[in-house]
Amino acid sequence: MLDPTQAQERAADIVARAKRAGVDAADAVFAADASTEISVRLGKLEDVGRSESEDLGLRVFIGQRSASVSTSDLSSEALDALVERAVAMAREAPEDQWAGLAPQDRLLNGAPPLLDLDDGGEVSPADLREAALAAEEAARAVSGVTNSEGGGASAARSVWALATSHGFAGAYSTTGYGLSASVIAGEGSGMQRDYGFHSARHRSRLDSPEAVGTLAGERAVARLNPARMESAAMPVVLDPRVGSGLLGHLTGAISGQAITRRTSFLLDALGSAVFARGITVSDDPHRPHGLRSRPFDGEGLPVSPSAIIEDGVLQTWLLDSASARQLGMAPTGHAARGVGGSPGVTTSNFYMHAGHVPVATLIGDIVRGVYVTELIGQGVNGVTGDYSRGAAGFLIENGEMTTPVAEFTIAGNLKEMFANLTPANDLEFRYGTNVPTVRIDGMTIAGG
């Protein structure tokens, strides 16, 4: 695989070709990836996968007309043809007064921050197989586990580069490692499944296979013999692995595209209280070896840690350059680029700050409620904020988690859910988006 310097040169080369072809402006993305995945089931190797890819994307501007093209054929002849095709497409494209490269005076200058995203390691398929087998074996060893959907281990390395015609060129590489196990507890119609999973930029920071597998087994067994919930209004407590979805809904609602199209339930919320006082939600692209850390955004702008929600108040939209121009604002360094198409927006290491109370205290005064460990379906309306999803978890009775429960629905409106949310103090950085355990009062439960 190419190193970051070579990847940067590839991106810069296609931009130079486009400029020679007469375009007014251009940018290019080069992305390369190599990954190995091993899966096992019932102690036997089930699948070995190896993938390698190198792709190049070019976006050109002629006046206010633009076009994007991409290719995996990186020969000189193919690149010349790619430029020719992009120019022809741009000449026929409709004008877009908001399109264009990022403001030149806002581009990242100087060396990007060092974020320790690539540990330089190589892992053999044999080592991955042993890790996958160990994870599954630990899961199957948990009393009550009766079958397995398998264990898995993966290792990957990626390189990403961006170059623009107005002075930016940058690249960086990342490594990524994953471990998983998914098992079944119980028999017949009473079977329950659950999983354990962990990923990390550095292999040394990956949970042990035994820890991942044991967690999967214990989770599956804990779900056996679920009861049904009655229909009522009651507090809902979300486990961190499902609670992080709330920040995904927040991201969608405050993205520039949603605001410019007026399709957000938070359309007029900038500068106002969205969460309760004391709640802060931050985005940290500089977190060392973070799963979503990056030294610059998808348009070449610098990125920095920032509070999106501070003391409950919404501080900013997430803006790329096009949506920023349309709103008469400045881009925020949240642009995201794939190989094809125009930039969108994304967060990096997005998280809700920990609260001040332990989980036991958070649920201690709940006479009857539910602790949710699984959410099912996509019943969320980003325009109105209406929220309704299938769920499973555990009944909370008199401040204690008791019986497993399943086949019920939790419903509310995201505006009210955000306003009535209380975080515990158990924040851990295990995913790209992280929250502590959170409690939401006043949700509607529809039981079976």
Automatic annotation (TrEMBL):
The UniProt record lists the keyword Hydrolase: yes
Keyword Hydrolase listed: yes
EC code: 3.4.-.-
PANTHER family per the UniProt record, alphabetical: METALLOPROTEASE PMBA
All residue ranges annotated as the Metalloprotease TldD/E C-terminal domain in the record: 233-447
Protein family according to the UniProt entry: Belongs to the peptidase U62 family.
Molecular function per GO: metallopeptidase activity
Metalloprotease TldD/E N-terminal domain segment(s): 26-90
Entry's Gene Ontology cellular component terms: cytosol
Organism the protein comes from: Sphingomonas mucosissima
Cited Pfam families: PmbA_TldD_1st, PmbA_TldD_2nd, PmbA_TldD_3rd
Protein's gene: pmbA
Alphabetical GO biological process terms: proteolysis
Phylogenetic placement of the source organism: Bacteria, Pseudomonadati, Pseudomonadota, Alphaproteobacteria, Sphingomonadales
UniProt-recorded name of the protein: Metalloprotease PmbA
Metalloprotease TldD/E central domain boundaries: 120-224
Top-rank taxon: Bacteria
Keyword annotations: Hydrolase, Metalloprotease, Protease
Stored InterPro entries: EF_Hand_1_Ca_BS, Metalloprtase-TldD/E_C, Metalloprtase-TldD/E_cen_dom, Metalloprtase-TldD/E_N, PmbA, TldD/PmbA_N, TldD/PmbA_sf
